[in-house]
Amino acid sequence: MCAISFPDFPQSSSRMSDVRRHRGRGKRQTIADIPCTFSGCGRRFRSTGALTNHTRTEHRNPTLVGGAKIQRASSLAPMLESGADSPPTNAESEPLRPLSPESEERASESRDIDVGSADIPSLSLWFVPSLVVSNSETDHSPGRPCDEDGNDLPDGAKPAPRRPPSPTNWNPYDDEVQFRVADFVFRRDQMSKGNIQEMLQIWALDNLKHDDIAPFANADHLYETIDATELGDAPWKCLVTQPLADGADAPEWARKSYEVWYRDPDVVVKNMLDNPDFVGLFDPAPYVEVDANDQRRWSDFMSANFAWSHASQIFHNDPTTEGAMICPLFFGADKTTVSVGTGDVSYHPGYTSIGNFHSSLRRAHRGAVIPFIFLAIPKSMLDRAIHQEILTRIGERKYDNDPAFRTFKRQLYHASWAAVLASLRPGMTVPVVRRCPDGHFRRVIYDFGPFIADYPEQVQLAGIVQGWCPKCTALAHDLDGPIGTTRSQALTEQHIQAFDGDPKTLWENYGINTDVIPFTHDFPRADIHEMLSPDLLHQLIKGTFKDHLVDWVYIPAIQGLLPPDIVQALSTFLDFCYLVRRRDFDEATLQEINATVYKYHGQREVFRTAGVRPDGFSLPRQHSMANYASEIKQFGVPYGVCSSITESRHITAVDEALGQMLLTNQRLDKLTASRADFEERGMLPPQYKALPDKTSEQDDDADEEPVDIPRVDGTVELARTAGLIPIPLHLRYSYKLLARAYPRNIYSLGDHIGLPHFHDLVEAYLADQPSHNSDADSNSDNDMNEEISTIRFSVFHSAIATFFAPSDQSGIRGMKRERIRCTPSWGKHKRVRRDCAYVVDSEKDDAAGFAGLSAVRVCLFFSFTLNGVYHPCALVEWFETVGRRPDPETGMWVVKRQMEGRTRLTTVVHLNTMLRSAHLIPVFGTRAIPTDLRYYHSLDAFDAFHVNKYIDHHANEIAF
């Protein structure tokens, strides 16, 4: 441990003292009444409630926060979410007072320029225009390659090799076998030390017969070899705070020192940039993406306004930075509790990433999201002399309500971040030379980008009061109301100056906690309010849906079915979740997002009228929905800045004791860096998963999985292994036929599956195929029958669809694969399983969404070769739509069985018409469902089905 005196600790920091004097608790200023904030209106009021009523009545179309033109729900009852801390005690509270026009002007000047689509010149499909947001033609070429000394390279110059391309230099490993063993047992299998020891002993015992030894002498030898790796090395260090007090009468938390474990963020960022594994998934400069109609699109972070405006600001403040690459740094933090040994242990890890990385790379991890800090968690313990049982029951909670202890925890939190990030400060104004994934050196300017956090952490970061919004100044009791503007550090300082730092007034009327100085105060261009990013996981999925809507639905629905208005509200909210989870956005999608919020705000009123939410909906997590469209313009796709990215790192970051955990993460980073280096030098093949058509259905039970393969538009291919047992169409619920193999002749196969006219369906299919039509006119029916009778057919129990689905859990390039099954024996109960799928309907080429698709149920996967042409096919039963548009209550299309006379319409289709699997949910109706009906009966027992567009994000994008 490196024991270091904690720098910039809140009680001794000169900066903290200066700001504290600035935020001094002066005398209360009395104000006679509250003026209306709208220009030209002279009305004044004695309470904020009266001002709210006046604004809603007299000013019907105000400029809403975040640019979202949405009719807000009326909520006049003052209400705060439970759990708000009490304000600092001092003078009496003052009523809400607007800032002077001069103060508002100064505050607005501090906010970044919003680069809308109207500001962007229309040039080409992909381009990197000037970062000067104006009509100027100046282009300072950000992200220009240079040499190791920072001198610009000529256009087209190739990067120097990172290391000599020696195919035999496995340093620090002896050879390929030694590295692959270490990589497998430690990174991929995460084998325990005891198991590693036993494996190596068995290996050595076997090698004795050949007078040879195992790759490693023992587990310690393996660990020492990994530790000797220089690539990816970012050792853990420790900051130790100085105790606040040493007197016996001081509380124990004030007499303690606290440890903050961290890795130098400058070294961590340098290692991430110098990773050749990220080539092709990295943007060296902000860019603007436009479609074929010159409409702007937002996708990865560097396509959004934040990077654009900050790069412009850097260049205008210092023209000598021309050609430098802006490197926006992502941060994230999420306190978590894990079981270690016999008890629960809390950790508060922090993470970092780089905004130049594509969102898919951050979600796939692979070293693009790195834990680099473990914050201290002060505990309010009693003196250790007290009996352990009392300590266990009440000791850790004694000071939880002590304002001094709460203030200390907040200040320690921000001081820790400021101290650890201090090594980045020089590189935020003066470029530093760093090697990038493409091998080029570039002069890099660091910048603080999004901070990923859930709402409680956002409260602590922003220095606001629980129940208020960290992004805007909307009133806590009416968050979706018309009063409020964008929060910023400059605006907060203006409020503090206007009220002489009176903590009670600022706490109650503006939601400002004067005891907190955000750590961003120490860094150029950093504003914590601007940095806080939208959070799909905690704001929408866990917050609004799980904690709000699910509870609101179940409470009134215990004794009966759900009213249609509640179903519509749930459907609209799900539509919003799927919209904001998409991979890219254009102006039309952003307008659709705002329209969906407006629709949901109207539909959720059913919960107020039903008595579930009589006080309204002033809830910070739901309030965040109104800002998503503007936040997408600012940060790019929300799924690239979601806390699910950092939460998923808990698996590797916080599953063991702290000391071992830090060492484990360090070794994992070194192995990842070594593999990337060996792959770049051609010593190891790229770590792609096997292509889907090489997968046997006998050894793969996964219905879907991400795949790391180069992007393709989409394919459906039969499994490599042919099936062994046929599927009679007339056997719905059970299967008793035991055949050793399928017949290969078309007529025998038709009889075997209970479809004697199977050959007619194959002939009809062939008649529609271009490769067969050339000979069709010259062949008689007899010739056709003779030709088909000689074909040998193969039957398969599944097909594999591979498609681009970056919004779902996918590989590093956005690819995903899934199995479409048609098997007589599946699962524990060995039931028949025949999946449904989407097929592209040639008669609906011009239609969008599900209107251009059809749903089918697979009855048989088979293939044959005719005249040298391979035909992978599926025998399918068709569904037809009910109505011309989705069901208005659920928002989903409804289909029913398509009949041909009194039988199901059944045809043969080529697999290239099949898109992917489809999920159909029965329309249950009002009749009671038989108790003996099982899930595998559903597609046969019901007449109509919902086409589930909510099964995943890709389905939501194609089946609307």
From TrEMBL:
Keyword Kinase on entry: no
Biased composition (Low complexity): 92-101
Biased composition (Acidic residues): 698-707
Record domain C2H2-type: where: 34-64
Top-level division of the source organism's lineage: Eukaryota
Region (Disordered): 1-28, 49-68, 79-115, 136-173, 682-708
Keyword terms of this UniProt record: Metal-binding, Zinc, Zinc-finger
InterPro entries, alphabetized: Plavaka, Znf_C2H2_type
Compositional bias segments (type: Basic and acidic residues): 103-114, 137-147
Protein name: C2H2-type domain-containing protein
Organism lineage string: Eukaryota, Fungi, Dikarya, Basidiomycota, Agaricomycotina
